């Protein structure tokens, strides 16, 4: 049991971390009233920037490279998401359309630039990815230490910490109150003197930053290079986590951890003798079936922020 | 003469319509100034201009004599102008406190909202003006009256000196209206100035000092309330004489159309709100239900119309059991329903007027055959009804969303009455409507009665209940506690019954 | 006609500059990539390198006797093949089993052109099939793995469960068991050729369970395997943990600081096969309807020894011995799971 | 009024032009010749009868997935699951194509129906969960995509074949392929499916705009409460919408299975026809006929892109960038509309 946990938990954590970051981005955006189908694209952009930056500056930055790379990816993700913000907030475009365009644009741009810069469809492997470590002190705790704090990526804990920060920001600060108000009832917020457009821009840009972060963490902990198939569906899983988690930062985190755990379990089960005779396809689809069952059984109805998806037009009723 | 607010020659256009055409209104300090006009006259628009939500095409706004350009609600707030909107601007999932401080939150050093400080400030304000609220309750859990008090507190919290009320009483029960009027008075005592939009002439007469009247976007004039009377106000507003006392013959009730026995219905929180209710309505009579909000009226109607399941009991229509049938089956057995919440239930706002006109009948001939719609018939019908019911709309192809509340309501009434149901249920049918429209709707209800239909009228307006009903059923705590004859009762007595106290000899009456 | 002749107006114009020179040559060969470009550091790249070498030897250049058309997905295969047919290349080569159906169809539709496919079998008189004896190479890396393993536990990570990948699996297991019959091989398929996360999950689980050498035949999914191995190595440079690469020398992927986790790679010399085919075709000996298998004997398969530290003399010696046994027919390497079963019983 | 119509018509055209201009700028900046690039693109899509045939072929499933997603959108539902529905539709069509022995007049319709039924069944799950339990259809459809992918692979391997990765070709009696269409398009894979796709667009238009069902579906999409009040069965409508939407997507699978490939192969990851359908639906503003045009634009650009690396050395991804930009421009029609009106005023 202990062994299994020690094997499952760290893998679930590394699998979940990029999803957590990105899903938190989704939470910010959707809480501000802007649907963000473009999470996948934001992750692609993050992965691309994270890898390219890492390849380019590894010699200069040494061991700091992955950290600086994910910061670069965060910044570029934030800037990139402004496209979505301008389209869906200022130009009042349908937010879903804009998000779909973001997905296509990011992948197109990423692979196009890769080919332009590297002359091939995929980059080399980075020399400075993230590595797992034992978290000092915490890993010494008996039982809990080895399971949760040995051989883990610091980025996984960064994701969890940011989830709590996101919760604090959204639910305890006036910024959060305003952001949520804008997503629930923008006109009420407007009449209260809150700049709806500004808040929504912030929401979307945060999603870009976190999506970029998620993508780069994925690339630098799991894949190590960039190609058209680096990010294949993780953004949609993050979107699912947003909804699964009922648009709540901790809920989204929980959902992402659930996905990671389910994947990890499905891999571990394949090695368990008892399950050896189970056709592999059942293990493969198990995480997805479990998600549906969990939704149907316990989670049930989830209501999106009331105004999400609706462009705010001043003075419209 | 010093004015706190002057709006001079304001013009505001919307695509295809001039909502405000050269309107002037001047507000003195400490006065309550009424703004009167038919539905769609442009009152809300004018006030939204003052509040910075719209920019006028022409005209000038002065605050305390100084010309101001009010570009946003923020600016309005800064100038001490606050507004309580017709549709509340409250975030449903937030608490009272959160709604009030939103945008101007007291913060701790850490950036966290200082909720305790907020609560204290709100408490002070609420004590000072008598605005009773529960600071920690969620908006979705509190009564409409309290929501309104939250709106008022929001403006006061922002230091408003001028308060605009857009039809504040339309959604309130008589008790709540009384409280609101007290609040308005206490506000002026504290030196605030108020602009009050209302369709209820009685209220204008009771609390207002002056009244500006607008008709079809144009300013008609300003009168001192002390020097006028309701009849004059009404005719100024509508441009013709208005009848206040609804003319009607004595009812000639016939056989029972609706019979309800021992009905129990739960509300959305799974608590019984209708508790053993008995009621019957006969052909050719209007039964009015009087009651304080929350005594089971909405649940009663929803269970008759099939929108909510009855827990037990029997509902019979023309001697046929319709308990817990589907809404469609019930409609087809002869029930028409003018719903309380017209935006939520009455209309598909993104459908055209024409498509909304057949919301209950689209699947029937001639509007469709073998499941295929016949738009020609649909729009013909719509043309006919908008004429007959005086629905003011650019065309039958216009989206319902674009119409003013009064006109939306007229379209619904046209749709429901036109089907000629045996039982017509009208829930708050005149809420938010101008006197002209109210008169029209009352006339229609009585016409239906005279055609031998049964009408169930639910209203918080005791005036309306007393005026239109042939019998009044008083609802209290989920039961009909009294049946009274409108000729033999008055508002005071009804008010007592609604509050649950029995009046000699009438408590057990049942009309059967 | 050197690939770009009359039919296509556009390319015609483009090539007219070099046209005079090109007219002399009368042979053209072009390839269609499977998903990915000729720079995928794998199959497509290797094939293109073969063509380029062939071109160099015969004075042909890109767009002028040799060329490639890149496919980004299944939907691009047929258009690319047809485009090259219309450009009148003599031989159209498809790299990858994914193109099987399309080449089969094209061969029927264009009986005057010659086709070839790498990694699959196509049945047509004007099509050649270039196969590899992956099982042989896998056998040899299995031998190396068995020698290297200290725990006696090996892992195999497959991309998509299919006859082709099963060939790798069977060969690998056979090789390992030939050295040490008690060795165990844990086999898992990611059901994906580009799901690095899945690859990493599987590798993590395998290494946790004491497996110390993993052979992957899983394309991009294998990135996750390398990633996990390197992570373990980074944290514990002393720990003996290995990956065996596939298709090409994946030494570079295994580099971590001064260490390298790539034990060896099972290399498919697509370039060798392609060059051979091109030469045959040029000499008018196009092997239509035939299935050429490139194994150890033909230099179509190789086991790398780039990691000199890891591939010790002993191991190399043993690998060479087994290679000899395969060459002289002493050992018949199994290609399927059934054959593997029989093979294991015979041990 | 006529003016408004003109603008509505102009917007997509202007968007495409702007998208192409942006693409040209990108090519210039990255050192390619845009004229050569676009010539290659054009030749790749419409250069000759073959490429035209291939463009049509590529357009065919896009029309159907576009319709599928548009249909769901009209009822306020977001079907991200077209991807999975295409896969199961494809699988079912091939299955029937392989397993049944019947004359064409029975076999082909049967295979097509099977694909529709499979797609419908696949979307029934998210439909019923949404209707009965309020589970968000977006997550369920995403999950169903993965389930479809893995299950289909397993069925191909262990049911339709004996461990192989590609099935045998279906018998000719179930094939939509047309030797005649192929012969006039230099052996492109154009097939009769395009007629089915166009017909499906008409069907969708008819359902949405002319039937009581469409009236109900739209009403439920706009306002559930009012629909319930009007006696409509909201749950039934949600399920029905999803099922019809899935049916269209399943049919798209039949286009690939019965028309283009005649087989089904084990898939590694997304086939993207479903995801691209989202863009097609949105580009076509959920209007069935506009969806056809959007699908055609999409198909032509994607098909033409194949020629760009060989013809001009430009990476194919440029086309993805252009498509994305076109979508942005269409989506931001408000700003184009505004600019056009300004322009008009300036003229006066
Ligand atoms: N945002 C808008 N866009 C277009 N037309 C509008 C808009 N707001 C209001 N109108 C139109 O302007 C006119 C005035 O509307 P307004 O809401 O000011 O009326 P009102 O006097 O407040 O009516 P009521 O008593 O029903 O509230 C109406 O014809 C209405 O349809
Ligand atoms: N109740 C309060 N107690 C203490 N400080 C306050 C309080 N309200 C506002 N502040 C401070 O006064 C300043 C202006 O407050 P205000 O609420 O207008 O913020 P704001 O300028 O609207 O914020 P933003 O520009 O981010 O929307 C801020 O620095 C804020 O921290
Ligand atoms: Mg502010
Ligand atoms: Mg109004």
TrEMBL record, chain A:
Membrane topology category: Multi-pass membrane protein
Molecular function GO terms recorded: transmembrane transporter activity
One cellular-component annotation, GO: plasma membrane
Compartmental location: Cell membrane
Keywords: Cell membrane, Membrane, Transmembrane, Transmembrane helix
Protein's UniProt keywords contain Membrane: yes
Transmembrane segments annotated in the record for this chain: 12-29, 41-61, 67-87, 99-118, 147-170, 201-220, 226-244, 256-275, 281-300
PANTHER family: GUANOSINE ABC TRANSPORTER PERMEASE PROTEIN NUPQ, SUGAR ABC TRANSPORTER INTEGRAL MEMBRANE PROTEIN-RELATED
Name of this protein: Sugar ABC transporter permease
Source lineage: Bacteria, Bacillati, Bacillota, Bacilli, Bacillales
UniProtKB/TrEMBL annotation, chain B:
Repeat recorded as keyword: yes
Keyword Ribonucleoprotein listed: no
Topological type in the membrane: Peripheral membrane protein
Subcellular location: Cell membrane
GO cellular component, one term: plasma membrane
PROSITE patterns registered for this protein in UniProt: ABC_TRANSPORTER_1, ABC_TRANSPORTER_2
Limits of the ABC transporter domain: 5-241, 258-502
GO molecular-function terms, A-Z: ATP binding; ATP hydrolysis activity
InterPro entries, alphabetized: AAA+_ATPase (IPR003593), ABC_carbohydrate_import_ATPase (IPR050107), ABC_transporter-like_ATP-bd (IPR003439), ABC_transporter-like_CS (IPR017871), P-loop_NTPase (IPR027417)
Main location: membrane
Domain of life: Bacteria
Pfam families: ABC_tran
Keywords assigned by UniProt, alphabetized: ATP-binding, Cell membrane, Membrane, Nucleotide-binding, Repeat, Translocase, Transport
UniProt similarity note: Belongs to the ABC transporter superfamily.
Name assigned to this protein: Heme ABC transporter ATP-binding protein
Species of provenance: Oceanobacillus chungangensis
Lineage: Bacteria, Bacillati, Bacillota, Bacilli, Bacillales
From TrEMBL, chain D:
Signal peptide feature range: none
GO molecular function: transmembrane transporter activity
InterPro entries the UniProt entry points to: ABC_transp_permease
Membrane topology per record: Multi-pass membrane protein
The keyword Cell membrane belongs to this UniProt entry's keyword annotation: yes
Localization (cell): Cell membrane
Keywords assigned: Cell membrane, Membrane, Transmembrane, Transmembrane helix
Entry keyword Signal: no
GO CC field: plasma membrane
Entry superkingdom: Bacteria
TM helices/strands, residue ranges: 6-29, 77-98, 104-125, 190-208, 238-261, 273-301, 321-340
Major subcellular site: membrane
Name of the protein this chain belongs to: Branched-chain amino acid ABC transporter permease
Species this protein is from: Oceanobacillus chungangensis
């Amino acid at each position: 049991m202990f062994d299994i946990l020690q094997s499952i938990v760290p893998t679930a954590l590394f699998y979940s971390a990029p999803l957590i970051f990105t899903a938190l981005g989704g939470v910010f955006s959707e809480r501000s009233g802007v649907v963000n189908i473009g999470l996948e694209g934001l992750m692609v952009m993050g992965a691309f920037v994270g890898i390219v930056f890492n390849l380019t500056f590894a010699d200069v930055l040494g061991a700091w490279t992955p950290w600086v790379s994910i910061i670069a990816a965060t910044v570029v993700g934030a800037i990139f998401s402004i496209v979505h913000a301008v389209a869906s907030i200022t130009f009042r475009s349908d937010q879903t359309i804009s998000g779909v365009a973001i997905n296509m644009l990011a992948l197109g741009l990423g692979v196009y630039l890769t080919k332009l810069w590297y002359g091939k469809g995929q980059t080399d492997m980075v020399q400075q990815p993230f590595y797992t470590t034992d978290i000092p002190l915490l890993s010494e705790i008996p039982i809990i230490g080895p399971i949760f704090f040995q051989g883990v990526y610091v980025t996984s804990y960064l994701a969890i910490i940011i989830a709590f920060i996101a919760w604090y920001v959204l639910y305890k600060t006036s910024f959060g109150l305003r952001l949520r108000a804008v997503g629930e009832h923008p006109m009420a917020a407007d009449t209260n003197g809150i700049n709806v457009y500004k808040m929504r821009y912030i929401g979307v840009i945060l999603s870009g930053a976190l999506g970029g972060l998620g993508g780069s963490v994925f690339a630098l902990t799991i894949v190590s290079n960039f190609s058209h198939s680096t990010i294949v569906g993780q953004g949609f899983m993050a979107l699912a986590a947003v909804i699964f988690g009922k648009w709540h930062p901790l809920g989204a985190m929980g959902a992402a951890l659930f996905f990671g755990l389910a994947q990890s379990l499905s891999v571990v089960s394949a090695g368990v003798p008892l399950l050896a005779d189970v056709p592999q396809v059942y293990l493969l689809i198990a995480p997805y079936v479990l998600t549906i069952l969990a939704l149907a059984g316990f989670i049930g109805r989830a209501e999106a922020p009331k105004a999400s998806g609706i462009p705010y037009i001043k003075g419209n009723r | 003469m010093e004015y706190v607010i002057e709006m001079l020659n304001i013009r505001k256009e919307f695509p295809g319509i001039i909502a405000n055409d050269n309107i002037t209104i001047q507000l003195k300090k400490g006065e309550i100034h009424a703004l009167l006009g038919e539905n769609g006259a442009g009152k809300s628009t004018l006030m939204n201009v003052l509040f910075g939500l719209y920019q006028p095409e022409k005209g000038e706004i002065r605050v305390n004599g100084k010309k101001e350009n009010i570009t946003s609600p923020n600016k309005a707030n800064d100038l001490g102008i606050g507004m309580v909107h017709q549709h509340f601007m409250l975030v449903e999932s937030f608490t009272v406190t959160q709604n009030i401080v939103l945008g101007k939150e007291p913060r701790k050093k850490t950036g966290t909202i200082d909720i305790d400080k907020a609560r204290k400030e709100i408490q002070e304000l609420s004590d000072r003006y008598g605005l009773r609220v529960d600071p920690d309750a969620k908006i979705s859990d509190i009564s409409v009256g309290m929501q309104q008090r939250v709106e008022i507190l929001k403006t006061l919290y922002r230091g408003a000196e001028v308060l605009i009320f857009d039809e504040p009483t339309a959604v309130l029960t008589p008790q709540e209206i009384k409280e609101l009027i007290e609040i308005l008075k206490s506000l002026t005592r504290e030196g605030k100035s108020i602009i009050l939009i209302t369709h209820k002439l009685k209220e204008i007469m009771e609390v207002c000092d002056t009244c500006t009247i607008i008709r079809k976007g144009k300013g008609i004039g300003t009168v001192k309330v002390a020097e006028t009377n309701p009849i004059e106000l009404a005719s100024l507003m509508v441009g013709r004489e208005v009848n206040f006392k609804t003319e009607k013959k004595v009812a000639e009730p016939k056989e029972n159309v609706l019979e309800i026995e021992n009905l129990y219905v739960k509300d959305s929180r799974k608590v019984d709100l209708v508790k053993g209710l008995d009621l019957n309505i006969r052909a050719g009579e209007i039964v009015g239900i009087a009651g304080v909000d929350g005594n089971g009226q909405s649940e009663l109607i929803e269970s008759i119309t099939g929108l909510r399941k009855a827990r037990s009991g029997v509902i019979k229509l023309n001697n046929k059991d319709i308990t817990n049938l589907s809404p469609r089956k019930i409609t087809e057995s002869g029930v028409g329903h003018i719903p309380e919440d017209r935006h939520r239930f009455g209309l598909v706002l993104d459908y055209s007027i024409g498509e909304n006109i057949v919301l209950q009948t689209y699947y029937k001939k001639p509007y469709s055959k073998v499941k295929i719609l016949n738009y020609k018939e649909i729009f013909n019908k719509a043309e006919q009804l908008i004429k007959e019911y005086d629905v003011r709309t650019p065309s039958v192809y216009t989206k319902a969303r674009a119409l003013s509340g009064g006109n939306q309501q007229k379209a619904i009434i046209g749709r429901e009455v036109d089907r000629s149901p045996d039982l017509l249920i009208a829930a708050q049918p005149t809420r938010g409507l101008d006197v002209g429209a109210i008169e029209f709707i009352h006339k229609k209800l009585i016409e239906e009665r005279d055609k031998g239909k049964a009408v169930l009228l639910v209203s918080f307006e005791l005036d309306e209940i007393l005026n239109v009903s042939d019998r009044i059923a008083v609802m209290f705590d989920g039961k009909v506690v009294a049946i009274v004859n409108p000729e033999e009762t008055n508002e005071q007595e009804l008010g007592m019954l609604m509050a649950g106290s029995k009046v000699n000899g009438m408590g057990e009456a049942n009309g059967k | 006609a050197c690939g770009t002749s009359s039919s296509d107006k556009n390319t015609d114009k483009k090539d007219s500059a070099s046209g005079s020179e090109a007219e002399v040559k009368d042979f053209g060969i072009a390839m269609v990539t499977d998903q990915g470009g000729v720079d995928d550091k794998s199959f497509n790249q290797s094939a293109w390198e073969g063509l380029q070498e062939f071109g160099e030897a015969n004075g042909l250049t890109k767009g002028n006797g040799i060329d490639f058309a890149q496919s980004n997905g299944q939907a691009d295969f047929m258009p690319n093949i047809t485009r090259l047919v219309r450009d009148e290349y003599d031989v159209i080569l498809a790299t990858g089993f994914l193109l099987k159906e399309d080449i089969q169809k094209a061969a029927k539709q264009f009986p005057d052109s010659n086709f070839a496919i790498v990694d699959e079998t196509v049945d047509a008189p004007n099509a050649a099939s270039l196969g590899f004896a992956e099982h042989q190479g896998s056998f040899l890396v299995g031998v190396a793995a068995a020698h290297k393993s200290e725990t006696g536990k090996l892992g195999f990570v497959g991309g998509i469960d299919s006859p082709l990948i099963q060939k790798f699996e069977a060969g690998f297991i056979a090789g390992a068991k030939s050295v040490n019959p008690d060795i165990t091989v844990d086999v898992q398929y990611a059901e994906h050729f580009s799901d690095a996360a899945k690859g990493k999950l599987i590798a993590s689980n395998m290494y946790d369970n004491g497996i110390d050498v993993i052979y992957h035949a899983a394309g991009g999914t294998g990135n996750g395997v390398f990633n996990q191995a390197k992570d373990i190595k980074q944290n514990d440079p002393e720990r003996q943990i290995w990956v065996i690469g596939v298709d090409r020398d994946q030494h570079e992927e295994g580099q971590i600081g001064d260490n390298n986790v790539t034990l060896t790679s099972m290399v498919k010399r697509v370039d060798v096969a392609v060059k051979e085919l091109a030469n045959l075709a040029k000499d008018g000996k196009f092997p239509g309807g035939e299935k050429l298998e490139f194994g150890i004997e033909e230099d179509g398969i190789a086991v790398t020894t780039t990691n000199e530290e890891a591939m010790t003399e002993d191991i190399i010696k043993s690998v060479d011995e087994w290679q000899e046994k395969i060459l002289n027919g002493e050992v018949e390497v199994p290609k399927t799971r059934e054959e593997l079963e029989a093979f294991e019983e015979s041990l | 009024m006529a003016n408004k119509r003109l603008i509505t018509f102009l917007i997509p055209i202007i968007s495409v032009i702007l998208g192409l201009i942006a693409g040209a700028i990108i090519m210039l900046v990255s050192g390619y010749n845009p004229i050569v690039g676009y010539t290659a693109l054009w030749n790749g899509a419409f250069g000759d009868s073959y490429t035209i045939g291939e463009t049509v072929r590529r357009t065919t499933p896009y029309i159907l997935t576009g319709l599928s997603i548009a249909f769901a959108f009209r009822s306020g539902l977001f079907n991200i699951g077209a991807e999975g529905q295409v896969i199961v539709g494809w699988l079912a069509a091939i299955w029937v194509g392989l397993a049944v022995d019947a004359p064409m007049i029975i076999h082909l319709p049967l295979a097509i129906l099977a694909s529709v039924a499979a797609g419908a069944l696949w979307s029934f799950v998210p439909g019923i969960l949404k209707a009965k339990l309020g589970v968000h259809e977006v997550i369920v459809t995403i999950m169903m995509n993965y389930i479809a992918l893995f299950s289909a692979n397993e069925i191909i391997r262990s049911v339709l074949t004996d461990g192989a990765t590609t099935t045998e070709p279906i018998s000719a009696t179930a094939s939509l392929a047309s030797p005649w269409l192929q012969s006039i398009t230099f052996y492109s894979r154009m097939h009769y499916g395009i007629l089915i796709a166009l017909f499906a667009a008409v069907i969708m238009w008819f359902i949405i705009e002319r039937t009581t069902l469409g009236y109900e579906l739209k009403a439920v999409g706009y306002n559930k409460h009012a629909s319930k009040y009007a006696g409509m069965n909201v749950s039934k409508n949600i399920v029905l919408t999803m099922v019809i939407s899935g049916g269209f997507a399943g049919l798209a699978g039949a286009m690939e299975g019965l028309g283009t490939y005649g087989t089904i192969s084990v898939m590694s990851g997304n086939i993207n026809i479903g995801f691209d359908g989202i863009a097609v639906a949105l580009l076509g503003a959920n209007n069935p006929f506009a969806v056809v045009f959007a699908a055609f634009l999409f198909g032509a650009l994607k098909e033409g892109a194949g020629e760009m690396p060989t013809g001009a050395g430009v990476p194919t991804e440029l086309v993805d960038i252009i498509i994305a930009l076109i979508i942005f421009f269409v989506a931001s029609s408000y700003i184009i509309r505004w600019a056009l009106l300004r322009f008009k005023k300036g003229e006066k």
